[in-house]
Amino acid sequence: MKVRKSAAVTAVVLTLALAGCGGGTNQAPTSSGASPGVPKVGGNLVVALPGAPDTLDPAFTGSRYSTYVLPNFCERLYDVDDQLNVIPQLAATLPTISTDGKTYTIKLREGIKFNDGTDFNADAVKANLDRYRTHPRSAEAPNLINVRATTIIDPNTIQLDLSEPTAPLTSVLANRSGMMASAQQLVKLGDKFGDNPVCVGPFSFVSRPSADTINLKKSEYYYDKDKVKLDTATFQVITQPTVRATNLRSGDIQVAVDIAPTDVDSLKTDPNIIMNDMVSLGYQLITINVANSGGSGKPPYSPVRSGLANADLRKAFELSLDREAINKVVYGGYKIPSCSPLSPASPWHTDIECSKHDVEQAKQIVAASGVPTPIPVVLTIRAADDQQSKLGAVIQGMAKESGFDVSIKATESAAGGDAAEAGDFDAYMSSWSGRIDPDQNISMFWSPTSLLNFSGADYADINDLMAEARSTIDDTKRKDLYAQLAEKMNAYRNYVILFHDTLLMGVRKDVTGLQYFSDGVIRLKTAAFTSGT
């Protein structure tokens, strides 16, 4: 399986070169023009994140921040390369697919050990896939909904039997559904696996002394450990973007994710830092609680009493928002205004017409609704984040013109996600890191049984189109179906997509070997500090 290439920038590989922010060339960046030196063994690399993963269990997480952390100690059956082509990782080859598209046979790599020394084999793969498919709390279940059974053919071969052809399946196994946990540790910890996760990976989990700090160390069991240069790696949550930038300048951290646009220019002039930007597969959105009164993933849903549960008022709310102005004021023009779940970085992207900012029309819709104004809306945002606070304030001011009284509720990221899952919210500002197959950028939010369906969406026409697109093998037909889906989703407005992200990452110049693609994953396997700097 090959994901078609996009014209958008998809990757940066910090070996001896890194594309500079603003379209720089791939030259070896040094303060003196000399070679930055060769990778050296040892050291602790600190990566600063803007928020904390909710859990380190790939079956349960719904956080974009786990995307940065998990792949470094929990490898998958498949990965992607720098052009987003699916490639084998723990699988030995791409799957063999039957003529009718209903049977996938996957050969596994031999001689692989989990980070507790137990064997990686077909038994372990079956245990993981069955857990993803059937566990009532699994966030991955919608992605594997068509997998009817898993069968061990031999110790290094597993077969997946499907109820119908499923085009996204290989791509699904290149994400969280393909992450392989130690079967022994799953039995030992059960639902508490995320407290002490054990997988296959270049690093092993060591500790999480607080929600904001995750410590890893080089794995002694990793099959490719000679390529791992770092002794340890730390993921540190620093919510304030200005503090991330300050700590990057000082050298207290070596990698900073989600650099604020206001800090980009000054960081570009620092001779010890390299800035990179690339278009992400993900997007920012406002989730509106339409019918989630008892918890996501539990249909049938019942309409909630929030004013935005009214479809006409959702339209008025969106019309009150000026995406272009928000992008300029809050993000310095670095976002890509859009209402589509399919990024320009994706070959599945199609241009669709978004509702244009129109306060007068919004006012008319509000007046015609008969709902007394101002209409109260509580918007949940991430706490201790200057950009989120600024975004919330701008939305608050814009919506006020049309008759909405938006109040801001700032919560810690994991707590906000828990409240959204429980249905305890009006509107929830969040982001999605993006997936290489379009189905996973849509069904995770719109499938009635998905735990990430915070809005309580359950529409027959959407459900039918998702099922048809998922079972269609022809790419041209699939692309047309996803364009239809995007149009219908915009008409319902359970989710108001605002932008596609531009990934802004700052890296100290003495770091090499780090890989960062448009899928948003930071790959530390070959990362190292350099000598001679």
Keywords, separated by commas or semicolons:
alpha+beta, 26% helix, globular, disordered N terminus
Structure notes:
By secondary structure, the chain is of the alpha+beta class. Helices cover 26% and strands 24% of the residues. The chain has 14 helices and 23 strands. Strands 3, 10, 11, 12, 13, 14, 15, 16, 17, 18 and 19 form an 11-stranded mixed beta sheet that branches. Strands 6-7-9-8 form a 4-stranded antiparallel beta sheet, with helices on one face. A 3-stranded antiparallel beta sheet has the order 1-21-22. Helix 10 (386-401) links the parallel strand 16 (375-382) and strand 17 (404-411). Helix 8 packs antiparallel against helix 10, helix 12 (438-446) packs antiparallel against helix 13 and helix 13 (460-471) runs antiparallel to helix 14 (475-492). The radius of gyration is 23 Å and the shape is globular.
